[in-house]
C-alpha cells in the first residue's frame, strides 16, 4: 500500500516508485488539487503532457477546461490523473484510432489507478474521460454506450459516483459530438450541488389476471389529457409483452409468459388483448412512444391490435430538434433524465436466465420514454417547432404505419421465375469476371471473389496497379480507375465485368430473393428520421421481422413483381425537377424561374432541361436533342445539362460529374465550367448559405423543418447544409400529400397511397376512381410553396415568392392477365395535362 501520501508531490513520488516495481513506464504523474472532491481521469498523456509532466495541459486539456469552466470548475479545484501514465504511440499502419496496449499492462494500470484514488482524502466524485477510465472504474467498456450516465464505483468502502463521457481528444477528432460532450459535463455541477436525482422506478409485472385487468381498465378510464407511454418487447417473432406508464416512476408490464410457461389461459389472454386493443384504439388517448412507428405496425400486423395514433414520439421529437444527433432511447435517457445507463438490461437477462429483469426493463423503457417526452415537448415549444412536429411529423406517422401494414401484392410465381433466371445469369457473370481478371493480370489460373473488398483491392491495386482515389473499391472509385489514362483495355474489361456482376448479384440477393409475407405482400418500414444529411426525406428498409425490402430504390427490372390488388390499379405522380425549382428560388436564378414556369404552363412542349442545355452549349433551343442518349448510346447535351443541374447544385466536382454522366474527364470539366458560367448564382447561393449559418447557426425551411449547426462548420457540414433545404423541403412536401389525400373527404374509401418514392407517391384505387384520385393528388401535389431566398433572409427581408411544382402523372394498364403492375405505368397524355392546367 502507498504510505504517507499527503500532496501531489508525494503522490507522484509513490506512483513513480510503484511503476518501477511493476516495470511500467512512468512519464506523466498527477496534478491539480490533492484535497479536491472531484477527480478527472483521462486516458493517457500526450506530447505536451510529457513535456510539462502534468495531465491535461495539451490541446485536449485546453479544450476540456474551455468546456468545463462554464460549470464553475477549473483545474486548480480538481484532482487530475491518467489511467496510463506513459505516452501511447500508435503504429503508422494501425487501422484503429486508439493505440494498442496489452491486456496485462492495462490491468496493472487500472489497479494502480484505484490505489491512487484510495488516497485522496476528500474524493466524492469522478469524471471518467474515455473507455480506459470507464473500464478501470466500472463494469462497462464502451464509452459510446454509457456516456452521459453516472455509474458508481467503490473506493475504500466509499460509494463514488462516476460521470462518464468522451475523451476530449475524441471530440477534437469528431467535432459533431461536441454538443454531447457539453451536455455530459453539465451533469457534474448538479452532482456536486446535490440536484442530480436518479429516478426510482416501480415495475409491476407477472400479474394475476384480475390485477392485469384492473391495471388496463384504470388506464382506459384515465383522463384523456393524461400522457400514457407504451412499449412492446418481442421474442421469437411474437409479442412477449406490452408495457404502459402514466408516470415516470411507475408502470406495468402485461407479460403473457414467464420462464417456460404461459401466465394466462387462452381465454384470459384473449380478454387482456381485447382490453389492450380497446385502450390503444381509443382516438382520444394521448399515447407516447419511442419509435412508435415500429410498435404500431408490429401490433397491427402481428397481433391485429391497432394503435389509433401516437400523440408523441420521442425519437421523432428529438429528430426535429437535433437532426444531427443520435435519437435512440439510450441517448435520450442521458440527455433528458438522471437515470443511469440501462439499455443492456434488454439482453443481459438472458445470461442470468432472469426473465423478470426483462419485464422490468420494459417498464423502465415506458417510464423513461414518458420522462423524455415531457422534456422534448417543452423544448419543441420553446424553440417554436411544436406546430411543425404535431401538424406534420406526427400527422404523417399513422399514414406510414398503414402503408407498411397494407403492403403491396407480389406476383410470387414471376418472382420465383426471375430468381431462377437471374441466378443463372449471376453465375455466368461471375465466370466472365474470373476470365476478364485473369486476362488483365496475365495469370491463367487467377482467382478472386468479385464480392470481396480485399480480393478486389488486391486485383486493382496490387496486381493491376490501377489509379483511383485511395483504395476504395466502390462504384464511384471503379469509375475513376476505369477512366484513368493508364488503365489498360483489359483492365477496363475487368472493371466492366465486375460492375455487371455486382449489379446482377445485388438484384438477385436484394430484390429477387427478398422475402414476402405469408399473405404474399411486400412490406417496408418507412423511417421518418431519414438520413442525418437529409432529415426531411423518408427512407425505407425491411420490416422488423426480416421480410420485405427498401421500396424506394427498386430497379426497373423488378417492377413486374409489384401488382395492384384484384380490381385495382396504380396512379403515380412525381414532382417535376422539384429540387432544382426550389434551388432557383433560394438562389434567385431568374432565368430558371422563367424556364420552369414555361415548362409548367406548356407541359409536353417546353423542356427546361433543353433550355439549360441551349444556354450552356450556346445551341438554339430547337436544335437541342430531346432525348438523353443518341442513336449510339452516347449522352446528349440535354442529358449533360440535366445531370449537371442535379449534381452541381450541391457542390459536385468535375471528376464525379464525369462518373455519373459517363463523360470523358475533359468533357466533364468543360460541362462543369459551362454550367457555372451560365448560373453564377449557384456559387453566390453557397456563400450566402455559409454566411447565414455562421450568423444564425441554423436554417429553417419554408415548411418549418430546421437544420441546426451543432458541430464545427467545416466542408463536411457545408455539404450537408447546402443540400438540406431543397431536399428536405421536397421530402416533407411530398410526404405531406399522403395524409392530405387520405383525409380529404372526397378520397375514395378503399383507395390508399401505397408507396413514397422521395419526390413521388403511388396510389392504388379502383379504375372508376382514377380521375378523382388524380384530381385530388394533383391538387395537393401542386399546392404552392412560398420560398424566401437566402439572400433575402440575410438582409432581414421577408418576401417569399410563390412556387408551383407541376406533377407528372402515370397510370397503370392491365396486362394480358388483367393485372395492373408497376411496370405498366404509362404517362398521362400531354393533352390531358394541358386541359388540367387550363382548369
Structure description:
By secondary structure, the protein is of the alpha+beta class. Among the domains are: 8-193, 3-Layer(aba) Sandwich (Uracil-DNA Glycosylase, subunit E), CATH 3.40.470; 202-408, 2-Layer Sandwich (Nucleotidyltransferase, domain 5), CATH 3.30.420; 411-510, Up-down Bundle (Taq DNA Polymerase, Chain T, domain 4), CATH 1.20.1060.10. It has 31 helices and 28 strands. The protein has a six-stranded mixed beta sheet, with helices on both faces. Helix 4 (103-118) packs across helix 5 (131-137) and helix 19 packs across helix 25 (654-661). Residues 91-95 and 830-839 have low confidence and may be disordered.
Annotation field: number of helices: 31
In which range does the helix fraction lie?
40-55%
Tell how many strands the DSSP assignment holds: 28
**General form:** globular
CATH class of one domain: Alpha Beta
What is the architecture of one domain at the second tier of CATH?
Answer: 2-Layer Sandwich
How many whole angstroms does the radius of gyration measure?
A: 31 Å
For the biggest sheet, the summary is: 6 strands, mixed
Mean pLDDT: 92
Q: Could you say what the CATH topology of one domain is called?
A: Nucleotidyltransferase, domain 5
What portion of residues belong to β-strands?
5-15%
Classification by helices and strands = alpha+beta
What is the spatial order of strands in the main beta sheet? 1-3-2-4-6-5
Low-confidence stretches: 91-95, 830-839
CATH superfamily of one domain: Ribonuclease H-like superfamily/Ribonuclease H
Q: What is the rounded distance between the termini?
A: 91 Å
Amino acid at each position: 500500500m502507498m504510505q504517507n501520501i499527503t500532496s501531489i508531490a508525494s503522490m507522484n513520488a509513490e506512483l513513480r516508485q510503484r511503476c518501477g516495481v511493476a516495470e511500467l513506464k512512468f512519464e506523466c504523474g498527477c496534478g491539480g488539487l490533492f484535497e479536491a472532491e472531484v477527480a478527472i481521469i483521462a486516458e493517457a498523456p500526450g506530447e505536451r503532457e510529457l513535456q510539462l509532466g502534468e495531465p491535461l495541459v495539451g490541446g485536449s486539456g485546453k479544450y476540456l477546461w474551455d468546456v468545463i469552466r462554464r460549470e464553475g470548475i477549473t483545474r486548480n479545484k480538481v484532482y487530475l490523473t491518467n489511467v496510463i501514465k506513459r505516452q501511447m504511440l500508435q503504429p503508422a499502419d494501425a487501422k484503429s484510432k486508439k493505440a494498442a496496449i496489452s491486456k496485462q499492462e492495462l490491468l496493472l494500470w487500472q489497479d494502480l489507478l484505484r490505489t491512487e484514488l484510495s488516497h485522496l482524502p476528500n474524493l466524492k466524485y469522478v469524471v471518467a474521460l474515455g473507455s480506459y477510465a470507464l473500464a478501470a472504474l466500472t463494469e462497462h467498456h464502451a464509452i459510446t454506450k454509457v456516456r452521459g450516465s453516472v455509474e458508481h464505483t467503490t473506493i475504500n468502502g466509499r460509494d463514488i459516483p462516476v460521470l462518464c463521457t468522451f475523451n476530449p481528444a475524441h471530440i477534437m477528432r469528431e467535432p459533431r459530438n461536441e454538443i454531447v460532450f457539453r451536455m455530459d459535463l453539465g451533469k457534474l455541477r448538479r452532482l456536486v450541488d446535490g440536484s442530480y436525482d436518479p429516478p426510482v422506478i416501480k415495475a409491476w409485472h407477472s400479474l394475476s389476471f384480475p390485477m392485469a385487468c384492473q391495471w388496463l381498465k384504470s388506464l382506459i378510464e384515465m383522463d384523456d389529457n393524461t400522457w400514457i407511454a407504451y412499449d412492446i418487447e418481442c421474442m421469437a417473432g411474437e409479442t412477449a409483452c406490452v408495457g404502459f406508464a402514466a408516470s415516470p416512476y411507475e408502470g406495468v408490464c402485461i407479460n403473457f409468459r414467464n420462464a417456460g410457461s404461459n401466465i394466462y389461459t387462452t381465454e384470459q389472454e384473449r380478454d387482456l388483448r381485447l382490453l389492450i386493443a380497446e385502450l390503444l384504439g381509443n382516438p382520444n388517448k394521448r399515447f407516447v412512444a419511442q419509435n412508435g412507428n415500429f410498435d404500431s405496425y408490429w401490433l397491427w400486423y402481428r397481433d391485429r391490435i391497432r394503435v389509433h395514433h401516437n400523440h408523441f414520439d420521442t425519437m421523432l421529437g428529438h429528430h426535429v430538434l437535433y437532426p444531427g444527433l443520435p435519437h435512440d432511447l439510450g441517448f435520450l435517457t442521458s440527455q433528458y433524465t438522471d437515470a443511469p445507463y440501462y439499455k443492456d438490461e434488454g439482453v443481459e437477462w438472458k445470461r442470468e436466465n432472469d426473465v423478470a429483469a426483462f419485464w422490468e426493463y420494459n417498464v423502465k423503457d415506458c417510464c423513461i420514454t414518458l420522462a423524455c417526452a415531457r422534456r422534448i415537448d417543452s423544448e419543441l415549444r420553446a424553440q417554436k417547432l411544436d406546430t411543425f412536429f404535431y401538424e406534420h411529423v406526427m400527422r404523417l406517422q399513422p399514414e406510414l404505419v398503414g402503408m407498411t401494414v397494407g403492403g403491396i401484392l407480389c406476383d410470387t410465381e414471376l418472382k420465383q421465375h426471375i430468381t431462377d433466371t437471374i441466378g443463372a445469369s449471376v453465375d455466368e457473370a461471375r465466370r466472365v469476371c474470373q476470365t476478364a481478371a485473369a486476362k488483365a493480370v496475365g495469370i491463367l489460373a487467377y482467382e478472386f471473389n468479385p464480392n470481396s473488398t480485399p480480393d478486389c483491392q488486391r486485383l486493382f491495386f496490387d496486381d493491376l496497379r490501377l489509379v483511383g482515389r485511395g483504395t476504395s473499391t466502390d462504384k464511384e472509385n471503379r469509375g475513376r480507375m476505369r477512366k484513368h489514362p493508364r488503365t489498360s483495355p483489359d483492365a477496363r474489361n475487368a472493371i466492366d465485368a465486375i460492375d455487371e456482376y455486382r449489379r446482377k448479384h445485388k438484384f438477385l440477393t436484394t430484390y429477387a430473393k427478398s422475402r414476402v409475407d405469408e399473405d404474399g405482400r411486400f412490406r417496408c418500414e418507412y423511417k421518418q428520421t431519414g438520413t442525418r444529411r437529409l432529415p426531411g426525406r423518408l427512407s425505407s428498409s425491411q420490416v422488423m421481422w426480416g421480410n420485405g425490402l427498401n421500396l424506394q430504390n427498386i430497379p426497373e427490372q423488378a417492377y413486374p413483381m409489384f401488382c395492384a390488388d384484384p380490381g385495382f390499379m396504380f396512379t403515380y405522380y412525381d414532382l417535376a425537377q422539384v429540387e432544382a425549382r426550389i434551388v432557383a428560388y433560394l438562389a434567385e436564378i431568374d432565368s430558371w424561374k422563367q424556364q420552369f414556369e414555361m415548362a409548367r404552363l406548356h407541359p409536353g412542349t417546353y423542356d427546361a432541361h433543353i433550355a439549360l442545355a441551349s444556354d450552356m452549349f450556346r445551341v438554339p433551343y430547337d436544335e437541342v436533342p430531346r432525348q438523353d442518349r443518341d442513336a449510339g448510346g452516347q449522352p446528349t447535351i440535354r442529358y449533360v445539362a440535366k445531370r449537371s443541374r442535379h449534381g452541381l447544385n450541391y457542390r459536385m466536382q468535375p471528376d464525379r460529374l464525369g462518373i455519373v454522366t459517363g463523360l470523358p474527364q475533359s468533357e466533364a470539366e468543360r460541362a462543369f465550367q459551362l454550367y457555372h458560367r451560365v448560373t453564377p448564382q449557384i456559387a453566390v447561393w453557397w456563400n450566402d448559405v455559409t454566411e447565414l449559418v455562421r450568423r444564425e447557426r441554423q436554417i429553417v425551411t419554408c415548411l418549418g423543418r430546421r437544420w441546426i449547426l451543432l458541430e464545427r462548420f467545416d466542408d463536411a457540414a457545408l455539404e450537408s447544409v447546402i443540400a438540406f433545404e431543397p431536399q428536405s423541403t421536397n421530402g416533407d412536401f411530398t410526404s405531406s400529400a399522403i395524409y392530405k389525400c387520405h383525409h380529404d373527404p372526397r378520397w375514395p374509401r378503399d383507395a390508399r397511397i401505397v408507396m413514397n418514392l422521395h419526390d413521388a407517391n403511388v396510389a392504388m384505387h379502383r379504375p372508376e376512381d382514377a380521375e378523382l384520385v388524380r384530381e385530388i393528388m394533383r391538387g395537393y401535389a401542386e399546392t404552392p410553396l412560398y420560398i424566401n431566398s437566402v439572400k433575402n433572409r440575410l438582409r432581414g427581408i421577408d418576401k417569399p415568392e410563390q412556387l408551383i411544382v407541376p406533377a407528372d402523372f402515370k397510370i397503370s394498364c392491365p396486362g394480358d392477365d388483367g393485372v395492373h403492375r408497376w411496370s405498366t405505368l404509362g404517362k398521362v397524355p400531354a393533352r390531358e395535362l394541358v386541359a388540367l392546367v387550363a382548369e
